[in-house]
Write a structure and sequence with these properties.
The structure holds 2 protein chains of 2 kinds. Chain A is α+β, with helices and mostly antiparallel strands. Chain A is built from 29 helices and 34 strands. Chain A has a 4-stranded antiparallel sheet. Chain A has a 4-stranded antiparallel sheet with strand order 3-2-5-6, with no helix packed on it. Chain B is elongated and about 85 Å long. Classes of the chains: A alpha+beta, B mainly alpha. Strand 25 of chain A pairs antiparallel with strand 1 of chain B.
Chain lengths: 1135, 396
């Protein structure tokens, strides 16, 4: 399908002086797309040229539209010599390809040169005319929306979550091509920027195809990364979660409190065939549920042929016949599409919703995948998922042939039941098992055939299998908060993946038929505030030994004593007090080595590092009197002579889990009195710190807290550990801290996991006593937060709900040079620890004027760019909050949080309401016509079900490459609790729904103020539109480092320039903020002797339009709402 | 072991007013750090010295990067590199129209304006304006040294003397000097009123724009201001005089549509001033003039007899100054002449300011009654300026 790209060059300003003689410039512009180039006239002798060009029109394939960036080059005309380039602007036109994003790109863009930085600005207008898509064999996937946000974007509701999508493309790195020896640094940088731009376009297009194939229309939690493998090439890879999203078309439509008769509404829902939900929702009498769950296909899919699949699947229930055919679909069969076609038709008839479906039904399935990877299973899944949707018809009448079994397996059949989301609609998450992670060390080799990046695929496949099996061992069928990363040094590459094993509510995974929900219901109507804490595995057959107690909240289910996860704290979770950022930091020296030996050395070190990081985390968690970690991210970076590990997470006291025990120090030589003294001093200090922290974080669990250390036994394989039973004065020569059960557990667990897929034990635990001393030290030197500051690395700070509008996103980078040649591990650790601590202290000082405030989404990245350099980069956002309201009982805050979420999500998924609705009985009837089989399956806890999965596909994946893998998983769980759920309170929702009075708030000055935040929301404001994904890659190089203020001056300017370019692109898209902003890469190289430096930065985020809540016309439905809004808007002073 | 690189970049550019002032004053980073430490900021925030160093470095780098923009403040308004939050309402209006409202930007106010996080203050100025104002602000001591000098490389070379004499850091002297020079170059050949041009091009407050107009005007005509006898005069005195000169003696005073009307004096007018000599060369006219003045002032002046005695000298002085003004060199000596020929004699006779005012008024007005004198308009245009300048300069 061709499209027409139209570009107009309007004017330039602040151009640099290119002609020294006249102090002026004769500028003209080249506009290039694909292989076509247009030029403007020369505008002579001006630094502020007005070209006012005609519309340059490019007629191109939509495939090209997706892949290629629009390239605008500003040049200085020179009659006698070659024209000098002033700089370039690359514009990603992808946002124009989706009907729901931006319609025009228009604005001032900084003109960027890789050597000189920003040199003036250019005003450009870009439009795209797309002809309607008709080709079913197309290679393009225009219209699939991409979101970096790892939750359901605010102005959408999720219809179906299809699952994991991944893709990678490889190419030669221009920097390493032979031609690089003869071309200028500028040409080389530009070649690289352009290539990466092309590759990410291609990647996005390919992922889009997969999404369409799965029947989705969007990718959420899209994470794209570059691996600069040096000689061996350039890899661009991406993962994401395919979803079908529905735009909340009428955000201001009032939702009615939905607590009345949920069952009835649900019954109605399937029959709400009205293709236009708007009419539905606007009707005041329409119950909430209707809007929430009526997945009327209708609008907004016009561009995507295959979305009709989705539509189909959404159309509920009664038609049962189609299921058969669907399930037997062979995913790889080319007849698939026709099958779908027929299905479509049969479906339509009974449903009577034909009108909206018909136009699309013809183009069901894109079969022509260029590269067939790993997705056949998902395809099948999508198909069967659809079928299962039909199973749940309410009125018990129609034969619900679809079994729970099937829906269950739906998830398990997926090759990778992974979700990159970290935040879920209420009710989505049933149980959380714990963190699963896997790492693998690989030797890089040249990628010979860029079109067949099989090896890289295989590597990731292998890791994902590992993750999957770990999750299985935890009795979980899915992995959420999933992410992947790499660290490369020379030819060694560490691939890492981690996520949180979880049991999800299958209803979202199929087609959104809400009534297919009974599993959960039958099993346990657990309150949302603690349900996710309950163990998913079988108590009698635990994957690892853990202390289980009855949930402190509901007293019905078992919970572990500690819970580690990679996700955000679920909004409905009951929390005591506030959370805080917890970091474990570690450096390990490594001998310099080459090739295989190097890889071996690294893989031998990895398990120890993970173990120690984990120990640190656990100790620090206890020290703060908390019992759960969220947003856990462990990064291990490899350098020539060391490994650096950094684990960050947000510690929380989950009310549902038991109160954590204290920390006890055991002495090595019981006879020595002074030593004992020393130890008891230390013990006292630790106890004091714990007490202090509890006060600081307002952790006042209802139960009395005892400092008695837990009596723990070490069951690790290491005998030395197992000897350490409390009270026994072990003649162990050195002092060490009491290590917590988790360690032994993790070791056990690992062995278990390894067994589970037939491997040998991956590593042996060993406790080094020097480390233990070190641990204690590092525990105690962690500086306390200055008054008025809080910090966390999750989306929001648990315990703080009353944000005001102060917002400051920042990036800080530090590079530390180790001059000391003879460093010990301890010395190195201390340096690294200080580096991080000082960085944090600096941040607190810088942001002191924002107090009271919270640093959210604190994202540390470490790298070892050279032999003796450690680089730490932090991106975070400081947000102010209202202190007066900060001290609320958690109950009120949970209410508030829920309200907030729901208010933000608008009609999206009122799930928790359903959970706590008073008539679950009605749903229990829901014709789970299901066979005995299904019933029994429901009764069996997750762990057993999980075991049914086969690993056959995994075994022979990885062979061709040197495999030096030590993969290991940490899966941790424990717990204790106390809680109540208060959802009824929250239910009559705050739909103080709020109509947008005007969206003009963000215009005004000559330059739009663009907010940037790593979070998915903007406090005190409402996101009304997503205008496109931002994914930008820049290179900056200098050969006059000293003149630019040294490395700091150089990088400072570059980061500021990157921000400026991001803001300009967002503003040109019509947006006024970037949410979910992330700096994924910041590679800095210097050569001070040559006065040179180079830096690569890759950033991404979602451009959005938001309006202040104060600018919304609030409809005071409820006093609660208004008051919360008032508090928000009241402080709405600064922007 | 050392920190190789240390940067902090906020999406909203953070600018600390205190550090900004230190930077403007030309202190080095280490000086600035120690001065900040003395201010007790560390105790307030519980930070350590290296935190302060890192913070100061960051600010200095930011200011250095902004400096390029500050040189051309109109660029600062629509530059993209730094996001300095604009004000919600009427930003444009305030920028252009409201500038006059800013009489003086106190440090405190600046602090609030520059600090993007003080939420409730709702400052009424665009921060870039405050920033500019601060950047273009100058030290009284410095400007007195440079006022009327040619803004050339030579003068710049002598700045170390100025620095030593005034105690202002050389760096700050250079910045102030460069500011003068930059403004001078931009407005030198522009059409339209000088103050307005400066206001528009550099976004300066009305007050500051007037001061700069004076500096530009003085530099252009190179009025002598540095002689010992003139040391008692403040910049404000000169700025006032400059305004009078601009309003009355330049081309712009006659026709507001002429090119560089405000910078150069009206040559034709200066030429015409020669004709005033008749007032002293014609003996009759001079006597008549004296008697008119004496009659009018009798009993009103405390120093009547002294006035009577020195009338001819004073009158000759005033008219002679007028006669010489056609030579560029004598224009430069205008102020020294005024002091020597008029102010000093009066002071030695202990005239009060009121005496001087009465005398000058009468002296000017009485000429109207001289029928033989044909140059009333020139005389009045001349005396209007002279009178107000002398009155302004007549103090200790």
């Amino acid at each position: 399908m061709p499209g027409k790209l139209k570009v107009r060059i309007v004017a330039g300003r602040h151009l640099p002086v290119m002609d020294r003689a006249s102090d002026l410039t004769d500028a003209f512009v080249e506009v290039k797309f694909g292989n076509t180039t247009f030029k403007t006239d020369v505008f002579p002798k001006s630094l502020n040229p007005q070209w006012n060009s005609e519309w340059f029109k490019f007629e191109v394939d939509d495939e090209d539209l997706q892949d290629e960036p629009l390239q605008i080059t500003v040049l200085d005309h020179d009659t006698y010599s070659a024209n000098d380039a002033i700089g370039k602007v690359y514009i990603d036109i992808d946002p124009l390809l989706s009907s729901e994003a931006a319609t025009v790109i228009s604005g001032w863009f900084p003109i960027y040169d890789t050597i000189h930085g920003i040199r003036g600005e250019i005003n450009v207008v870009v439009k795209v005319d797309l002809f309607n898509d008709l080709n079913r064999f197309r290679q393009s996937s225009c219209g699939v929306k991409f979101f970096c946000t790892t939750s359901i974007p605010k102005c959408y509701k999720v219809v179906t979550v299809h699952g994991f999508v991944e893709e990678l493309v490889v190419n030669e790195d221009p920097e390493y091509q032979w031609i690089d020896r003869i071309r200028t640094p500028r040409a080389s940088n530009e070649a690289r920027q352009r290539l990466i731009s092309l590759m990410s376009g291609e990647l996005q297009r390919k992922i889009g195809l997969k999404v369409l194939e799965m029947g989705g229309n969007a990718v959420v939690g899209y994470l794209q990364c570059f691996d600069l493998e040096g000689e061996s090439g350039l890899v661009v890879r991406a993962i994401g979660t395919a979803c079908t999203l529905d735009k909340l078309s009428n955000p201001s439509a009032a939702l009615l409190p939905a607590c009345n008769s949920p069952s009835k509404e649900i019954k109605e829902t399937p029959f709400s065939e009205d293709p236009n939900p708007n009419t539905h929702s606007s009707g005041p009498s329409t119950p909430l549920k209707n809007q929430t769950y009526s997945f009327s296909p209708s609008k907004s899919y016009s561009r995507q042929s295959s979305s009709s699949d989705t539509d189909l699947s959404l159309t509920p229930k009664t038609a049962t016949s189609p299921k058969g055919p669907r399930i037997c679909l062979s995913p790889s069969s080319p007849t698939l599409s026709s099958d779908f076609l027929t299905l479509t038709n049969t479906f339509q008839l009974p449903m009577g919703s034909g009108t909206s479906l018909t136009p699309h039904s013809g183009h069901a399935n894109p079969v022509g995948l260029r590269k067939t990877v790993s997705f056949s299973e998902d395809l099948l899944l999508a198909a069967s998922g659809m079928g299962s949707g039909g199973s749940a018809g309410k009125e018990g009448g129609p034969p619900k042939t679809l079994l729970r079994q099937q829906t269950q397996t739906a998830l398990e059949q997926r090759e990778f039941p992974f979700f990159t989301l970290t935040c879920f609609p209420p009710g989505f998450l049933v149980h959380v098992g714990g963190v699963v992670s896997a790492r693998s060390v690989k030797l890089l080799d040249r990628i010979h055939n860029p079109d067949e990046p099989e090896t890289r695929d295989a590597w990731w496949e292998e890791i994902r299998q590992e993750i999957k099996s770990h999750a299985k061992a935890l009795g979980c069928h899915a992995v959420i908060g999933y992410s992947e990363s790499t660290s490369i040094c020379e030819e060694v590459c560490i691939l890492s993946a981690s996520g949180t094993a979880a049991v999800l509510n299958p209803k979202f995974l199929q087609d959104g038929s809400l009534d297919n929900y009974s599993e959960h219901r039958l099993e346990e109507p657990s309150p949302p505030s603690c349900g996710f804490c309950h163990i998913p595995y079988d108590e009698l057959n635990m994957p690892f030994p853990a202390h289980l107690t009855y949930c402190y909240n509901c007293r019905k289910q078992k919970v572990p004593d500690v819970l580690f996860t990679t996700i955000d704290l679920p909004v409905e979770a009951a929390v005591t007090g506030k959370g805080c950022l917890i970091q474990a930091r570690l450096c390990r020296l490594k001998k310099k080595a080459q090739g295989e030996a190097n890889a071996t050395a690294i893989s031998n070190l990895l398990p120890f590092m993970e173990y120690e990081l984990h120990t640190q985390l656990m100790n620090k968690l206890k020290l703060r009197g908390m019992n759960a970690l969220f947003g856990l991210r462990i990064q291990i970076s490899v350098g020539e002579n060391m490994l650096v590990g950094l684990a960050s997470a947000t510690g929380v006291y989950l009310t549902a889990l038991p109160t954590p025990g204290g920390i006890q120090i055991a002495g090595k030589t019981p006879s020595d009195m002074t030593y004992e003294q020393h130890i008891s001093n230390m013990q006292k200090k630790i106890n004091d710190t714990i007490a202090k922290n509890k006060e600081l974080y307002e952790i006042t669990p209802p139960k009395l807290f005892t400092l008695d250390p837990e009596v723990s036994t070490f069951k690790g394989q290491n005998t030395e550990i197992s000897e350490e039973v409390i009270g026994s004065p072990i003649p162990e020569p050195r002092q060490r801290s009491r290590i917590f059960r988790s360690h032994s557990e993790s070791s056990d667990e690992i062995s278990e996991l390894d067994l589970s897929h037939g491997k040998k034990d991956a590593f042996v635990l060993e406790i080094d006593d020097a480390d233990a001393v070190e641990d204690i030290h590092s525990l105690l030197i962690d500086a306390p937060l200055p008054a008025g500051f809080y910090s966390c690395n999750t989306e929001i700070m648990p315990g703080i709900y009353n944000w005001t509008t102060g917002l400051q996103m920042f990036t800080s980078v530090r590079v530390f040079r180790l001059n000391n040649v003879n460093l010990t591990n301890q010395g190195l650790n201390k340096i690294f620890n200080d580096l991080c601590e000082n960085l944090l202290k600096s941040l607190y000082f810088k942001l002191r004027s924002m107090i009271p405030c919270c640093l959210c989404h604190v994202n540390f990245t470490v790298a070892v760019p050279e032999d003796e350099l450690i680089q730490v980069a932090v991106t975070a956002v400081a947000m102010t909050f209202d202190k007066d309201q900060a001290q609320e009982s958690w109950k009120a805050s949970v209410d508030k949080a829920l309200m907030k979420v729901i208010a933000e999500n608008e009609e999206q998924l009122q799930f928790p309401l359903e959970l706590c609705s008073d008539s679950p009985g009605a749903q229990l009837f829901s014709p789970r016509k299901g066979l005995l089989e299904s019933a029994s399956a429901q009764a069996i806890p997750g762990a057993q079900r999980a075991t049914s999965v086969e690993y056959s596909s995994f075994a022979n994946r990885c062979n061709s490459w040197i495999e030096l893998v030590k993969v290991k998983a940490l899966t941790i769980r424990r717990g204790s609790i106390k809680t109540t759920s208060s959802l009824e309170k929250a239910s009559p929702q705050a739909e103080g729904h709020a109509r947008v009075r005007s969206t003009t708030a963000y215009t005004g000055s000559t330059i739009t103020v663009v907010k940037m935040t790593p979070l998915s929301f903007i406090p005190g404001a409402k996101i009304i539109k997503y205008v496109g994904i931002i994914n930008m890659f820049f290179i900056r190089e200098t050969t006059s480092l000293r003149e630019e203020g040294g490395v700091s001056g150089f990088l400072h300017a570059f980061i500021a320039e990157v921000f400026a370019m991001v803001r300009a692109h967002v503003a040109a898209l019509g947006g006024n903020a970037v949410v979910s902003y992330i700096m994924k890469e910041c590679v800095f190289m210097e050569n001070p002797n040559k006065n040179q430096a180079q830096c690569l930065i890759n950033v991404s985020g979602d451009a959005v339009i938001f309006v202040r809540e104060s600018e919304l016309e609030a409809i005071p439905v409820q006093p609660q709402t208004t008051s919360s809004q008032a508090s928000n808007s009241g402080a709405d002073v600064t922007t | 072991m050392a920190m190789e690189l240390d940067v902090f970049v906020g999406n909203t550019t953070i600018m600390d007013e205190d550090v900004y002032l230190l930077w403007l004053d030309g202190y080095t980073v280490s000086d600035a750090v120690s001065m900040r430490m003395k201010s007790g900021i560390l105790e307030q925030c519980g930070a350590s010295q290296d935190v302060l160093e890192s913070d100061t470095m960051d600010h200095y780098r930011t200011f250095q990067m902004t400096e390029r923009l500050l040189h051309n403040p109109s660029k600062l308004v629509n530059q993209l590199l730094f996001q300095i939050p604009p004000h919600r309402q009427n930003m444009l209006i305030e920028r252009w129209g409201g500038g006059a409202a800013i009489v003086k930007i106190t440090v405190q106010k600046c602090y609030k304006i520059l600090n993007p996080f003080s939420p409730s203050l709702a400052p009424s100025l665009p921060p870039s304006l405050a920033l500019t104002g601060r950047y273009y602000a100058f030290d009284e001591a410095f400007v007195r040294e440079v006022l009327g000098k040619k803004l050339s490389k030579g003068t710049k070379k002598d700045l170390d003397d100025v620095s030593a004499k005034t105690g202002i850091t050389l760096k700050s002297c250079r910045r102030q000097f460069d500011n003068f020079k930059r403004v001078f170059k931009v407005v030198e050949e522009m059409k339209g009123p000088l103050v307005e041009n400066i206001h528009q091009n550099f976004l300066l407050s009305d007050r500051l724009a007037r001061d700069y107009a004076a500096i530009v005007f003085f530099a252009n005509s190179r009025f002598e201001t540095g002689k010992k006898k003139l040391q008692y005069l403040t910049f404000e005195d000169f700025a006032f005089c400059a305004e009078q000169l601009i309003q009355n003696w330049t081309l712009g005073a006659v026709d507001s549509m002429v090119e560089d009307m405000d910078v150069d004096l009206d040559k034709e007018f200066l030429q015409d001033l020669k004709d005033l000599k008749v007032l002293i060369t014609d003996k009759d006219m001079m006597d008549q003039h004296k008697s008119l003045v004496c009659t009018a002032l009798r009993g009103k002046l405390q120093v009547f007899s002294e006035m009577e005695g020195s009338f001819k000298n004073l009158s000759r002085g005033l008219v002679n100054i007028a006669g010489k003004l056609m030579n560029n060199k004598d224009v430069r000596d205008l102020f020294i002449d005024l002091v020597e020929k008029f102010i000093e004699p009066c002071k030695s006779d202990k005239w009060s300011l009121n005496d001087v005012r009465l005398f000058l008024t009468q002296h000017t007005n009485s000429v109207r009654a001289l029928d033989a004198f044909k140059h009333q308009a020139v005389w009045e245009r001349y005396m209007r300026v002279i009178q107000s300048c002398i009155l302004k300069m007549y103090h200790d």
